Amino acid sequence: MTRRQAQQAPPLSYQDSLAHVTDELRNLDTLIRRRVATLRPQRLAAQGLMASKGVYISHEEVDALLAHEGADDTQPQPLASDHFDSHIAAKVTASSNQGIFLSLPYVTQLFSLSPLEVQTLIVCVAPELRRKYDTLYAYLQDDITRKRPSVDLVLDILCPSETDRWRARTSVFSDQAPLFRHHLLHKVEDPRSPAGTSGLAQFLQLDQRMLHYLLENTVLDDRLTNYVTMLQPSVSPEQVLVDPTLTTRLVHLCQRRLSDGPSGRHPFVFSFQGPRGIGKRDLALGLCAQWRRPLLSVDMKLLLAYEPDVATALRLVFREGLLWDAAVYLDLGDVALQEEVKVKAWMRTLARLVDEYGQLTFLAGELPWSLQGVFDQDSFCAVDLAMPDVALRQAAWERALQRFPTKDAQSWAPELASQFRLTPGQIHDAAAWVVQQKAMVRDEAAVTRAELYAACRHQSHHKLTELAVKIEPHYHWDDLVLPRDKREQLKELCGQVAHRHRVFSDWGFARKLAHGRGISALFVGPSGTGKTMAAEVIAHELQLDLYKIDLSSVVNKYIGETEKNLAKIFHEAEASNAILFFDEADALFGKRTKIADAHDRYANIETSYLLQRVEAYDGIVILATNLRENMDEAFTRRIKFIVDFPFPDATSRKAIWQTHFPAETPVSEDLDYEWLAQQWQITGGNIKNIVLAAAFGAAANGGAINLTHVLHGARREFEKIGKLWDDKGCAQP
Predict the structure, then answer these.
(1) CA-to-CA distance for 133 and 127, rounded, in angstroms?
(2) What kind of fold does domain 650-730 have according to CATH?
(3) Nearest CA to 415 among 477, 472, 497, 489?
(4) pLDDT exceeds 80 at position 194
(5) pLDDT tens digit string along 77-111?
(6) Domain covering 222-384, topology
(7) Does the domain at residues 477-644 carry the CATH identifier 3.10.20.600?
(8) Is 255 exposed, middle or buried (0-12, 13-18, 19+ CB in 10 A)?
(9) Would you kindly state where each structural domain of the chain is located, as residue ranges?
(10) CB 47 within 8 Å of CB 56
């Protein structure tokens, strides 16, 4: 039975939980009268002693409280508790048959409570609803300060014989009994007894969440609101942006495995692993939609931060899921379970709770973990959610771009899907980021391709900055001075990136290539010939982030550490849609050597590992080296593009001199680019430094850049690189 709106009921059924609880309190009054009748002779005999105490509860006051039940109580007083129990049970059954939700019977069913445990719960509910029970309980305990129900009081009221008391002590009041294992009741020490309280003297306190539930107050447990959210399914599994074949298989599995228990209550655990935004929670919601059940979403990082007692917090979470008839979704984020001993421990606790509460449970995390031996394999399914293919990404973009009412926006979906390997969640966030940025500057113009590209780069992971240096590309094709065939090679590289979806997916080449679908390039040439500039030009053309790998933070003298650092780089790069640029790559990708000692052997292992990672990387890797001979031959054979950057000749040097002077720069007419190109055989990097030094010199003098400024800058550059400077040979004819 699930919660439904109260229906019109005949007199022999309860219309709501309040009517039912009211009858249960009448029955409790009958039991209290019975206990008062037992105690009355003893109290009358000791009436003089009671009067000497000064403050006490009189017999007349107790009789008045038991005689007056409220203005709304029009039914006759029951004479026999057993008869009234039968009367209540009949009305509860009639309500159940009519689909009327009653909270107390539902709790009884959920937690498998015995009749004695239900009556114990009612004894503890009573003072939360009517203050008269404070006085009655104090009278029964012969202590005006003991207004709360205690273990001893409950036994006195509910257990007519000593044998019953003994049985109840173990079956009802042990810590593993349902009332306390599920935290429906709590044992509280007497604050007026500093020496401690015996088990019988302990007070019993109703859990506040259970009080709200019994009163049909449908709110989450206050203790869980910092890290728990209740979600209602709004999409079907078919609408979730996950591989449709996988979704269909999971739906079939759920239909087969979750239909065994009542109301779908059958312990089963799905473990979803994949990057942020891949659709783990949406998939869980889609599966819940099949059974019209809500999803209790738990942020485990926050739970671990807030709760010192993780086991108790998890039990309260699963209890809440049971009360709502909801599946439980535990978002583990990037917690690495294989490295956390404590996390392993509470995972085993979680397995016990899943089995105990019979909940459909979802574990979701970004990092892979091993759960072998933790869950019963008959009730466990691990699902690896890989990055969506271009078709799914295009569908995600088409959905996200609907917020932009322009004709061009939808046409960009295929291009964006092919260019950026983003998850559906990241695609949604990218579109939202564009809307936010335009709102901040009150930009009412239509969205542009450049804004969407910027949003995609913004969504990429930024952990690469811990391992590499991000380079902002400022150069264009016009800034790059190279022989024509070398420029064509670079443009072919960009073309392969732009059209790889058509080749691999539409034309079926992906089935022929198990790996090596990424783009790898080797730039060879002396320092300053434009290798880094070319990488910037490619990044600018493709609108991708460019990261230069800091070799000092990668190469480690300790065995195995270099591979770990490289593994982190490639893992983060895959999530960042970034171009990796290894400068002076021969330090990492150099020739493998003959093994002379253990260090040589591990150096060769590092090189082999790098070959595998570069070949497996689905993005763009650019390596730069001054000498091709230093590179491992096996590696160069696997490179798709090898571009030579020659030392610039006079014609190229003239073009380089001209491109390094911005159009708005004041330049003297006596500056002869032809003469400068013929005068010094230097690289573009040297020329850039000379021009910049000349510009600062001219700015200090307050005039245009002239030959004197250039000559001064050239002299400083020659001194820096260790070349001989000859003043006589620098006079312009």
Answers:
(1) 5
(2) Helicase, Ruva Protein; domain 3 (1.10.8)
(3) 497
(4) no
(5) 444 556 567 888 899 999 999 999 999 999 999 99
(6) Rossmann fold (3.40.50)
(7) no
(8) exposed
(9) 17-214, 222-384, 390-459, 477-644, 650-730
(10) no
